[in-house]
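Dissemination and training. As part of the outreach component of the grant, students in the summer workshop were shown how a complex can be specified as a set of sequence lines and then modelled as a single object. The example used during the hands-on session is reproduced here so that future cohorts can follow it. Participants entered these lines:
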Amino acid sequence: MTRLIEVLDTTLRDGAQGEGVSFSREDKIKIVHALDALGVDYIEAGNPAASPRDAALFAELARQSGPAHATLVAFGATCRAGANADNDPGLRALIESEAPVISLFGKSWRFHVDEVLKVSVEENLRMIGDSVAYLVKCGRRVFFDAEHFFDGYATDPDYAMATLRAAADAGAERLVLCDTNGGGLSGEFGRITAEVCAQFDLPVAIHCHNDLGLATAGTLEAVQHGADQVQGTLGGFGERCGNADLCQIIPNLVFKMGFQCLPDDNLRALASSARYIAEVANTSVPANAPFVGRSAFAHKGGMHIDGMVKNRRTFEHIDPESVGNRSRYLISEMAGRGALATRLAALAPDLRKDSAETGDLVVMFKALEGEGYTFEDADGSLELRILGALNRRERFFEVLDFHVISRKPDDARNSQAYVKIQVGNEVEITAEEGNGPVNALDLAIRKALTRFYPALKATRLQDFKVRVVGGSGTASRVRVHIESTDGTNSWATVGVSENVIEASFIALTDSIEYMLMNEKRKNGEG
Amino acid sequence: MTRLIEVLDTTLRDGAQGEGVSFSREDKIKIVHALDALGVDYIEAGNPAASPRDAALFAELARQSGPAHATLVAFGATCRAGANADNDPGLRALIESEAPVISLFGKSWRFHVDEVLKVSVEENLRMIGDSVAYLVKCGRRVFFDAEHFFDGYATDPDYAMATLRAAADAGAERLVLCDTNGGGLSGEFGRITAEVCAQFDLPVAIHCHNDLGLATAGTLEAVQHGADQVQGTLGGFGERCGNADLCQIIPNLVFKMGFQCLPDDNLRALASSARYIAEVANTSVPANAPFVGRSAFAHKGGMHIDGMVKNRRTFEHIDPESVGNRSRYLISEMAGRGALATRLAALAPDLRKDSAETGDLVVMFKALEGEGYTFEDADGSLELRILGALNRRERFFEVLDFHVISRKPDDARNSQAYVKIQVGNEVEITAEEGNGPVNALDLAIRKALTRFYPALKATRLQDFKVRVVGGSGTASRVRVHIESTDGTNSWATVGVSENVIEASFIALTDSIEYMLMNEKRKNGEG
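and obtained this result:
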């Protein structure tokens, strides 16, 4: 039987330590649900003792009755030096988070006990043991995070082992071996993990950082030598060079090493989950990311493409679709019709995978992607583009003209937009002011259209993101991504242009058209 | 004595296969000189048989009498099936490149011999042997690139070894073991490399790709088991997920494993060399890149910063300066006075951690973070805000007024900006047009200021990001993050407002002021 490896994702805790990473509460809840849907076993969602915002997140998750499949984990420190575990505010906050599992971290490196904690080695062991015992007494499962374990083992293996022993004897369920500084060689991790597994009758977890570029290797090495749980972040978010990247670790474990990990079919959602979380973090999956990057199966060399045409196995080490990715040929554009097939089944059930229209759609989307569009996270625009190309898109309005004036701000509403819009045979001219040109334009277009489409009143923009795609500086191409809501449903649209106003205009008008189209369908008129 | 490991960089050959990578001849010559200055042993500069542009590059390098320290390498295929090596146009092009070393690639995987070459296994061995012998006869040193060696060894080890034997017997100087598809597990590479080293009395090279996220691990594993040359690209450029990244491999070999590699002091130029090559490639070193990334030694967690202040070794696995990088303390809500104090040490050494001004600064930054600012990735604005609060910020200009008009786009340059700027007692009024309001405003401000500060001409915006922070829709608060460069250094600034134009205006003017302040310091006037 293949060994089952548990997955713990710490994007919301250790991942949030990454430079430039900052999640709102809504972002965090989105990420919990995305990880849950992917099938990770444990979601470490924050440190409720150190951060009131994390405490509020746990309270909110408890109110929503948490994720469906995954188990929530709260992270925090042992009790303080000289303090009683029963009476420690940090441990109390962990209990109050209502998380069923606590990742309790303690020092395993004597150097840190001396230099940072500045307590005796015995007191450190007491803090670990008492804290674990207290949490267990309160009905929590405890994973003991042995901070700096590998550095500690290198200088004083007996003491590093004694910290694990203190946690195990007090009732910890998992021993987590951490390479906190990311400075350990992966080869060492196997040997040391095997040693821990030999001495303890508890599942062991491995927690690596990528400071040497070896986090994936170290994690696999530890599993090979007995670790039963891998810890990391989906996309490698994390302090300095990031945590071990689960997007690399999981497919390696499953496809290259034959372990079991996540419900089987879920691996096909790996790439889209990674892109979704990156989008929430307002970043993007690096094109060259192993397994899930846009370029991970992109073939450019002439000889490589020649080989691929003869047999895909010549230059692809796995089937890209097994992780939800796809092959791309950068010189001779070839069809990825399969990707569109599921969409078309709903939108245009009369079209077949091998029909001429499907081929034309593939060509159109490839060209749009070349311009910087991504439709992965913009279903609304994707649907409108498909219907448009098939001449099945209804036009609800046309913006004949607009201009926007923005001034040096004296008060917030410093921008004025003028619009001229046609609906049927009627033309409406109006204006509105707003906070910035895009807001003013959005408000003016809605004002002009509300007379014709009163349902628009209930909708509003929920999120608005801009980023440069390819090129450099403010003059290069930008992608505007908009999320809209009517309070119940939400939908996303996208626009790309050299010009941020035009990109915003495309995404805004797509958003309104998509809403009107769905409104009409809902009312049975479509 | 420590073993000396040779370095071969293939940025210009295999690296150029990366998606979006495209080097002009001038770019390539710049990169050759940068690699040469860093001290790599071999520079694989292209495939003169397959590309006339590469042939012209070798001719140009020969005319310039090539790099000073490094040896140039030309890459190419064996002679064709059934063809005579003495009379093969591809081999002739390699000779004509005048490169002293030829990387000659041949098939080591039977599957490829059958499916791609479609020749007999004997003919493949003949092609390898004859081609090597011919090049050696012409006075060239030959490195034999055993393509797909590890895949070949896994399915037919005897045949894979026979291809190496054919090359060795014909006079090859190095046997290069390639994981061309990047699909091999690093653990295997050690065992197989040891087997090759045992059977051949020739130096062995290792050439990995990063499709599993294991290129660094595989390379180190092979060196540990006897390989004497590492191949990769400085920055990990390359097809799909990239080649093995020499920025990771070299410091691991030297600092973690005790090998010798590059002239000693040159490692201090690693980070700047990587940034320079990335800049030439019109990309940038990822912030989280091990060793050389901007975040590689950036500390954000409060407990980590506390530890670092007590002893840097607590959270840094090497001295960042040994690879030309530096420690950074990120100011975020997670950290407090400790992080700020490390900044103040450089900016205002007279202030203490417990002085009243420091307390005021902490309060100010907490308020700004509440508004949606994050300074952890905006060093420029952070510094300006600190100096401003201490009344130590010099004002180089004041924007008295501006307005921007944006129209429904007919062509890209649809926005016009008017600005009125004061410098000292002089007032400059001017205008500019651009692609969108922010671009137009940026260009107009620079136009007005260049008369006073000509150094501004050399600077440009490199990246521009917008995201909504807290709140909802286009009318909510937005954060604009800008990265600027003068070609050598780069710096980041940030602005937050309900209004995207104002947020951009803050980040833009911060960027210019920060540059002018540093320019003045550099000229010893500050």
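Residues 397-452 of chain B form one domain. Students were then asked to discuss how this feature might be tested experimentally.
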